[in-house]
TrEMBL record:
It comes from Kitasatospora cathayae. It comes from the Bacteria. This is MFS transporter. Keywords: Antibiotic resistance, Membrane, Transmembrane, Transmembrane helix. Its main location: membrane. The chain crosses the membrane at residues 47-67, 79-102, 108-125, 132-152, 164-184, 196-215, 221-242, 262-287, 293-314, 326-346, 358-378, 398-418, 430-448. Pfam families: MFS_1.
Length: 473
């Protein structure tokens, strides 16, 4: 593949990833006008954001496996087409039920875009510094989507109404279809495998039930519907593990969990969702309640964090020659934790400027972290299963995000009316929990790094030729 063609693949994959994050984040600043326009109650409002997570988490791993076996360009392009259609349906939705269904389908489309993206990049950049730079660009696209999505949505809603947000997203996705057809080359594994239908069904339904239970739990964790959904989700995920252990061609080879690099990549993605995505997804709403900011101002404050994550991800390649991917992951989580500590102590009479240092530090940490996750997702699995590795990594990230959002909403008290003082106190509690999770995730990464180093030392010792005297014994 020529250098020019490789750059085209990278730009297309990064643009698709950017759109996924834009689609995920647009409800952060348009939830109220969307709810008013569709006459949505509190439960329906919860599902405006959660619906996309259901589609994403349920299908990421399946989409990655399908992309490796049936064609990464094919799955990516299908995802772009589906994003056009689902965004158009969301824009024209006559009822809240139709809108929520469109949001779930947007999540499925996002899975079909996100899972093959790292596989496409891995194929275009087989290794070396060029791959590290390319994965840094992918990490920057994640941060850029989070930065642009809420601001774009707030501006479009103010000027043209909430439906224009989704018509604009449909137009951007239509451009992606054109770019994908022209800018991507087809790639797949040399020996395609059969579709693991039992694995797809148990994982998809299990994650969907679990996320649905977490979403419903915001309005009372003891309700029967919540307990049933959580129980079904856990049982189906246990069934998924059993199925994968006894299937000749699983969508997720459980033997990968013997590799500390894969464990670090998956665990790091999970804690990224828990400790960072969960908190930052709810921060704009918290700032509107606690400080009285407008939706546009709150999204602008969040852009300090996400914007700096873009810059840091692009520069993270400079770390690749000095430290390994797992160490970079631990450093990113620790820096995020330090930034979140600086957010503690929020009061209703504070200026948003007080949050800038903490958001800036956390943004740098997030950029380093996103680049590390992309790097590990590709390098911790066999080259021909890169899209599956991306799917597994992002499944963990968005499962963690679902749990992180549920915990954050509960701690912040966003499920019902609250005073500015209560909102500020709840935000402090959520920040404290996120900080502890960052530290726990970093500790887990360091344990995995130690295990990896021991494994390499043991392998090197076994590979050394034995002295002749030993061979004669």
């Amino acid at each position: 593949m020529t250098a020019r063609r490789s750059r085209s693949v990278l730009a297309t994959a990064a643009y698709g990833t950017f759109l996924v994050l834009v689609a995920y984040t647009v409800p952060m600043t348009t939830l109220t006008p969307t709810a008013v326009g569709l006459h949505a109650g509190p439960t329906a409002q919860t599902w405006v954001l959660t619906g996309t997570l259901v589609g994403l988490s349920a299908l990421l791993l399946a989409a990655g496996s399908l992309a490796d076996d049936r064609g990464r360009k094919r799955v990516f392009t299908a995802g772009a087409v589906l994003l056009v259609l689902s965004s158009a349906v969301a824009a024209a939705a006559p009822t809240v039920a139709v809108f929520l269904a469109a949001r779930v389908v947007q999540g499925a489309a996002s899975a079909a875009l996100l899972a093959p993206s790292l596989g496409l990049i891995g194929e275009a950049y087989p290794g070396g510094p060029a791959r590290v730079r390319a994965l840094g660009v992918w990490g920057a696209a994640v941060g850029l989507g989070i930065a642009v999505g809420p601001v774009y949505a707030a501006l479009a809603e103010q000027w043209l109404g909430w439906r224009a947000v989704y018509w604009g997203l449909a137009a951007l996705a239509a451009l992606l279809v054109v770019v994908a057809v022209a800018g991507l080359d087809e790639s797949r594994a040399a020996t395609p495998r059969r579709i693991d239908l039992p694995g797809v069904l148990t994982l998809g339904n299990g994650t969907a039930a679990l996320i649905a239970g977490l979403a419903e739990g915001r309005y009372g964790w003891g309700r029967p519907i919540v307990l049933v959904l959580l129980a079904v989700g856990i049982l189906l995920l246990v069934a998924f593990a059993f199925v994968e252990a006894h299937t000749a061609e699983p969508i997720l080879d459980l033997r990968l969990f013997r590799d500390p690099g894969f464990v670090a990549a998956t665990g790091g993605a999970l804690f990224t969702g828990l400790a960072i995505v969960g908190l930052m997804s709810c921060l704009p709403s918290a700032l509107q309640r606690a400080l009285g900011l407008s939706s546009l101002a709150a999204s602008g404050v969040l852009a300090i964090w996400s914007g700096l994550s873009v810059a840091a991800a692009l520069q993270a390649r400079r770390l690749a020659d000095r430290i390994g991917g797992i160490a970079q992951l631990a450093i990113g989580l620790l820096i995020c934790g330090v930034g979140e500590v600086a957010l503690l102590g929020l009061r209703p009479d504070d200026s948003w400027l007080r949050l800038v240092p903490g958001l800036a530090v956390a943004g740098v940490g997030s950029g380093i972290l996103n680049a590390a996750l992309g790097r590990l997702a590709v390098t911790s699995v066999p080259a021909h299963r890169a899209a599956m590795g991306s799917g597994a990594n992002n499944t963990a990230r968005y499962l963690g995000s679902s749990l992180g959002v549920a915990v954050t909403v509960t701690l912040m008290g966003l499920g019902g009316p609250a005073t500015a003082r209560a909102a500020a106190d709840g935000t402090n509690h959520a920040v404290l929990a996120a900080t502890a999770l960052c530290a726990l995730g970093a500790a887990g990464a360091l344990v995995a790094r130690a295990a990896q180093r021991r494994g390499r030392a043991r392998a090197a010792a076994e590979a050394e030729p034995q002295p002749a005297v030993e061979l004669l014994r």
